[in-house]
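User: For a reading group we're discussing how well predicted structures match intuition. Take TetR/AcrR family transcriptional regulator. Before you show the prediction, I'll give you the sequence so everyone sees exactly what went in.
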Amino acid sequence: MTPPPRRATRTDAQTNRARILAVAGEAFAASSGASMTAIAKQAGVGVGTLYRHFPTREALIVELYHQEIAKVIDLAHTLAAQLPPLEALRRWFEEVARYGKLKYGVSEVIHAATNGGLDDRNYEPFLGAIAALLDAGAASGDLKPGIDPQDVLLQLSVLWRIPPAPDAPARTARVLTLILDGLRTRP
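Assistant: Thanks. Here is the predicted 3D structure of TetR/AcrR family transcriptional regulator, as structure tokens, for the group to look at:
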């Protein structure tokens, strides 16, 4: 016996889910201790609605992670096609840093949910995004050839260790400059 066909998600349910994710992204970037009740209230939905979409705090964090990392991965290819290699890489690193604000404080949840990154479906595409930008920079002569994307990922991981503080943007900019200077053929 075949199971009954799955019903399409109602438009209002899709809207609620998108609003919850948008609010949660801002809330977790501001404070890793953001409560589910506060997120529901700010999203304009009931707590029951939030828990229908995301039965646990971890489920919300992991879904937000998958949504955000997919955007970051897609952006690398867009920037590589539209900008000179160094500018594309810098802009992409800045977006990774923005994403790092979300990951700060909730990285333990993401790490646990992806088995330390070993089960992360985004890992290879993220490395591919880095490789595309590195290859374009090496082809233009702006970046050293043969840089391992995994090494760059390790360098970038410091971005989600920068605590949200008034000096965080300046510190992030300095760290990104250090990383870029290390990759360039002529720092």
